[in-house]
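I am writing to request your help with a piece of structural work I have in hand. What I wish to show you is a protein chain and, alongside it, a tokenised description of its three-dimensional fold. Could you please explain, in whatever detail you think fit, how the structure tokens follow from the sequence? You will find the record immediately after this paragraph.
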Amino acid sequence: MKKTLVLLFFIAFFSTNILAQSSQSSVIFDSINNIIRSGQTIQLNCSMPSIILTSKTFAPGATSSYVVDSIPYNLPCPYDISSNSIDYYYPSDDLWSEVIDLNYGQPSTSPLFNFSFYGQNNLNKCAIAGNSAISWDTLVASKANFDSANYCIWRFQDVLPIPNPNFYKNCIFGPYHDIDVNALQRIGQMYFGIIGAYPERKFVVSFENMPMYQCNDLRAYHMIVLYETTNVIEFYMQSKPICYSWNDGKAILGMQNADGTQATVVSNYNLPNQWSATNEAWRIRPSGELNHFTQWYKRSVLGGDRVMLNTVNGNIVACPDSIEGPQYYIMETSIVRLDGDTILISDSCIVNPQTSLANSQYGTNIVASICNGETYSLNGFNENTTGTYTRVLQTENGCDSTVVLNLIVDSLLLPTDLLLNFYSNYVELSWQGNGDNYTIYRDGDSIANVTQRIYQDTNIIEGTYYCYRVKALNTICESDLSNQICELVGLENIIYNDNSINLFPNPTNDKVYIEIDGLRNDIDVIIYDINGKIIKTFKLIAGEKKLEIDVKGFASGVYNVKFVNKELSVTKKIIVR
């Protein structure tokens, strides 16, 4: 299975149309103002309170149909290409080259330059005609060192226009016409080579200062450029003259498929037409697209983590408020090549919010929570019930702005129904409420915090009068103190018992055994966790000296074990490891 290769590109600001590029590309596009926003800072204002951003992606791929575009005459390289290009030698005129490896001279570690042409993928060997054509049919090539030379047709008088199964098939004509590599002491040159870096390399074939046959004073300068990944073909013609006295001045600019049944021709540059060109450039690109998808993010200009954004039909609405402040909007487009490699293209822009609202501390979309009994009174609001409210305020630069308040009133209740129960050696306080936790007050002092609606006070003294109150809390609010409940602790509430209670082993991680000497009545054994939650209950029958409890399923920690019947109420602790 092919391992996916992910490459990262950062796109700089584009002032030209993205379609003038022939390598894959993806930039941020403002669909409201119909302009590219790559690398820009965008200021929102009264007339533009938000902006719709989308990706504009150029990713043509393999197909059997093509589109012809006229493009500016901006050469991708000089006619001699580069210092590493091949200055190719034809021993005579009108020859096909030897088999040319597109990857000739490339580092062994470099991925292969492969091309797709009319549904044929992974093409990387060709033959180049001295009359300016590239054939993917290597059978037309001359033998190595031209030991057996193969001539290319120069005579056009009887040749029909392409598509033509009787003319060179599987071929790019760029432009194909009769030029003379031998004329004027071989003044004309043919170069080929690769420029650029994977996955945006270009294979270039260039004809420089080529005399026209029988019209040597007329010189041809033209170039064919093949783009990897996008499989685009470009033609550049600085000079394509007409020699009227030879071959009727005919030429072809275009290409045809492997069986000569389908062709793509530039303009009317086909047989039998006579035509010339000066500083012209054309592109033939696949009509289909490579698979690609885009993900959007935003991040504060001040820093922090980026946040993934959802799109609607590929668009995002950028409208940061004054509290968020300026935001980076980041576009990441993944383009999947025909060989399965993935190219990741990243672009970004900054969007500045409108000038801040004159009376707002929280931007134009406010989510607020208050406690029961409070009133939200910021930004011109005066609300004390849950709901959605709107106000129209002015920004500092005079724009009207609608502020939306989503208000939540917390429903934390005052604890009620306080109840005191007396047991041997402790007092149990219970109540009703909906808090996340509770603070217990005794005689005005805070003595405990619990999460259950029950509390056992073991620190009591005979003959003392105790008063209890409870406060409920959650993450937002805290209630007032509950009503007070008071009781006197008498001697009958504190029982000292001679019964011997033994828990072993303690600590434990398996089982704990309980022995009670002198037990006259059945007794309930209740295990609580540290928060007062009942974990398990057992009953030890009078006359049975030992109770076995399995604690293997208990979480590690401290547990209270309460023993209670009509004559005994004792709490002991066990530790589970």
